[in-house]
Design brief:
alpha/beta; six-stranded mixed sheet; four-stranded antiparallel sheet; 8 helices
Amino acid sequence: MAKILPASAASTPASHRPVVLELKNVSKVYQVGDQTITALNNLSLKIHAGEFVAVMGPSGSGKSTFLQIASMLATPTSGVIFLSGKNVTDYNEIERAALRNSEIGFVFQQFNLLPKTSALEQVALPLVYTPNVSEATRLEKSKLMLEKFGLGDRLKNTPGELSGGQQQRVAIARALINDPAIIFADEPTGNLDSKSGRDVERILTELNAEGRTIIMVTHSQEAAEIAKREVFIKDGEVYSDKVVKHRRTTAQEHYGT
């Protein structure tokens, strides 16, 4: 299965495209002392290739647990997970790590960059765990990716030498370096000022326009307005799921710039 939706299929309704991620009757239960906490309760959801989905919900709704389960950072208590048509539910930790490296890109609110590592090395890091990729190839691919996001003059800078917006662009470049099937964005603008935030929103919108599948977990209705589908989670279940018209065709419209 192609990781990027072909341009010829962009006009095809999402429901007619291949399913890239499916959670089927997924539950996640935690035992805290003598208390049982159900974070996800028999949740089922399909994400199709090329979708831009905003996953929303109040604090404690289960949206963060959904992200962890769907992105293979955690395992479900019950239920089944399919990624690119494969049943990945029972993968062990080594198999899940390999899957995350090859099929999933992460963009986090806190950037999750290594403090003493240059931007070039940060982006190249996932390629270290990719077979048959030489160091020269890793660095060249990383350089080109950073240049794509306007950071060609920041290759040697560490996170402390970059603005928040620049750090998030490094994180996005790192997320894309292995050409993942899905990009998970967890509150990607939450730590940014409004200008940097709309730059990141523009990048995500453009990546989706290229055919990339994006799942963005957010509490912000404003941030969700760049997505094409909204899934609202409440009490560990899908409370509502709707396709929405772009209320902002670009990130700039919201800010009037």
